[in-house]
UniProtKB/TrEMBL annotation, chain A:
Protein name (Swiss-Prot/TrEMBL): TIGR03943 family protein
Region (Disordered): 64-112
InterPro entries per the UniProt record, alphabetical: DUF1980 (IPR015402), DUF1980_C (IPR048447)
Pfam families attached to this UniProt entry: DUF1980_C
Segments crossing the lipid bilayer: 36-57, 117-136
Domain DUF1980: 184-274
Bias kind Basic and acidic residues: ranges: 65-76, 85-101
Keywords: Membrane, Transmembrane, Transmembrane helix
From TrEMBL, chain B:
Annotated segments matching region Disordered: 1-22
Top-level lineage group: Bacteria
Cellular compartment(s): Cell membrane
Membrane topology: Multi-pass membrane protein
Keyword field contains Metal-binding: no
Transmembrane domains' residue ranges: 22-40, 60-86, 135-159, 166-184, 218-235, 247-267, 313-336
Entry-linked Pfam families: ArsP_1
Keyword terms: Cell membrane, Membrane, Transmembrane, Transmembrane helix
Protein name per Swiss-Prot or TrEMBL: Permease
Amino acid sequence: MNRQAQAAVLFLVGGAMLHAGTTSLYLRYVKAGLQPLLLAAGAVLIVAALATVWYELRRPRPVRRLRDGGEPHDTVLGDPDGGPDDGRGDGHGDGHDHGHGEGPGSGHGHGHREPRISWLLVLPLFALILVAPPALGSYSALRAGTALQPPLASPALPSGDPVPLSLVDYAGRAAYGHGHSLGHRKVEITGFVALDHGGTPYLVRMALNCCAADAQPVKVGLSGKLPPVLQPDSWLQVTGTFSARRTKDPVNGGIIPFLDVIEAKPVPTPKDPYDESWNQ
Amino acid sequence: MTIVKAPPAPVDRRHDEEPSQGWQFTSSHGLVLLLLLLVVGQGPIRRVLAAPVMQSWMTVFLAVVVQALPFLVLGVLLSAALAVFVPPSFFARALPKRPALAVPVAGMAGAVLPGCECASVPVAGALVRRGVTPAAALAFLLSAPAINPIVLTATAVAFPRNPEMVLARFAASLLVACAMGWMWQRLGRTDWLKPPVRASYEGRSKGAAFWGSVRHDVMHAGGFLVVGAMAAATLKAVAPASWLRTAAGNPVVAILALSVLAVLLSICSEADAFVAASLSQFSLTARLVFLVVGPMIDLKLFAMQAGTFGRSFALRFAPATFALAILVSVPAGAVLL
């Protein structure tokens, strides 16, 4: 890949990072706290692209001829790109035996070639801009076991009827406190629908530490008055009361508590589809 | 979409700069062609990618790339500043004359010189060229990617519930680096080392050298990061959870599986902690092995080491590093985690 193409890729990747960071797109992939870092990285990449163009335009042409002759200068220009790094790109150790003097001499007069591996940077760009896949949904949720952990404390429920709770909070109270801290209060939780092989409906929220690669599901079984048709991956806001029923996750044997549903209404996907309470 | 349409401007502008030696198909043209094809074919491509497996694969893939990229950029900026603004002779002066002492000092120096392994190989090559004893340069080569502040911060962020992981990673990596340095001093032969032939940034303006280094490192390390992210996403989205559960179930198999995985995935050390965190079925010790082995030896590092120091060196150095990294990090994990 020559420097022009590299500058274009840097510019595009930087622009894509800025795009993801300034919209809520990045929340599908990483935790909210990374936003400033994303924006800074995007800005740096764009500056690097512009600097590459700038120095490329100002590069004195005569030097190139010198480089063919193997003058000391040529190593200067080719340096950061020559040597061992060529070896890495080829996947062979001997790539750089020929030195960087050869790069400029071969072909386009555009200096050495970057290894082909740089082309792969086009893939995330394409995935982010053209496809922008949704946050992890029922497919991932059913492949992994519930990640519910005993809550550190179960403070008294806030006021309100129904009480808005996070799905992970409800699951922790219901699974480990025998629902004592819930009583007969009506609670309201939000998550997406997943149906297991037997057709049992779960309301799920993926919890993450850092990015979607480490996201793990927390599942709550649904019983009671359910909508006639449940579409996997659709988001529901469910109002209900504690149910003593529970089951074991077939994947890892974790506890899945149930909620006795009174009312379920479809809601749009929340801005941050993940539960990030583990980060606090 | 807006961003996809924006790019042709810089690309086109630079087409005009091509030397007028007739039209040639360069990578700039290739890039424009590729982007055009992707935009035109996005309908069919989207349909193919609509399967849940593909969606989930792409989400994990993007997640790894997006969260790792800021750390990569940060490391690349710092290593470029170091390469351009700190004279290499400084390192030679700063190290003790006795090799046995220079090894731990160089190993510790890795802690303050930020950068990922992609940066540390060229720096170690430069150190050897500047007269630093190879044993010390190798200790630096192994320790720098694993124990610098950026990597340790990333580790702390990725393991918010296990801060002791940071300490264990630091201790085990430093120990392995120093042990390898001393071992080289004892057993190593200079004729295994190919003297690197490279000049430095002298003669270029500082700005050109700095941004040249940034561009180069982002393009290289970024490419390898994409490979690592693809492997990690495949593992997460496609490999049956039962495989990993089986491997994770047996402590010995778990450690071996993750050390091999670290070599195969070749993830940048600034990002590997997040991948390790996602392998939550595995014991913390097995994940520590992953974090110690990965920055020291993996497929891309082997290629880089062979390129910088010669193949006969890499063929001896890499397996030794691999074995020692496992042997040191298992007891370290047992004690500290």
